């Protein structure tokens, strides 16, 4: 299984200029005092996966630029690039750049339309349409308290098992007949 190796940020939220978050390992823990930017790491990740502004704790995408929270944005653009390492140690870079309130998506430096970006993310097992792919601050409890059927539905969407249910059923029936 592949893993996220590094996040390159530029003028995104608490990072001024070009900065590197990582390198990461397969399991990581981020620690820091209140307000030090731990949740901003999650925001950077979600932003690069295509999340809308509200989910990134801002009103407009332009508010993501470093300094915008105090009315002094350092630039008109901000970007986040996810350096993903696949099973064969090949790197794939998923990058989203915001200019004003518009977004542009790149894979390995080449511009792609949003649908293609989402499609390529799905190939490495990241289903952006499945909310709760990332569990944010305060959400653990709400997931634990979900109705069991709702929670199962959520896990089926994340794991994409719902789409394989018919094929699974057919294979099971074929085995029974054999
Ligand atoms: P807690 O432990 O309280 O959850 P945290 O480590 O998760 O804190 P974050 O919410 O990630 O902290 O970061 C908050 C910090 O990010 C604040 O200090 C805020 O000033 C800074 N910040 C947010 N948006 C911007 C921005 N656009 N430009 C610069 N700094 C920003
Ligand atoms: Mg936080």
From TrEMBL:
GO terms for molecular function: ATP binding; ATP hydrolysis activity; DNA binding. The keyword Nucleus applies. It comes from the Eukaryota. Transmembrane segments: none annotated. Keywords: Cell cycle, Chromosome, Coiled coil, Nucleus. One of its GO terms (cellular component) is meiotic cohesin complex. One of its GO terms (biological process) is sister chromatid cohesion. It is found in: Chromosome; Nucleus. Belongs to the SMC family. SMC1 subfamily. This is Structural maintenance of chromosomes protein 1B. The lineage of its organism: Eukaryota, Metazoa, Chordata, Craniata, Vertebrata.
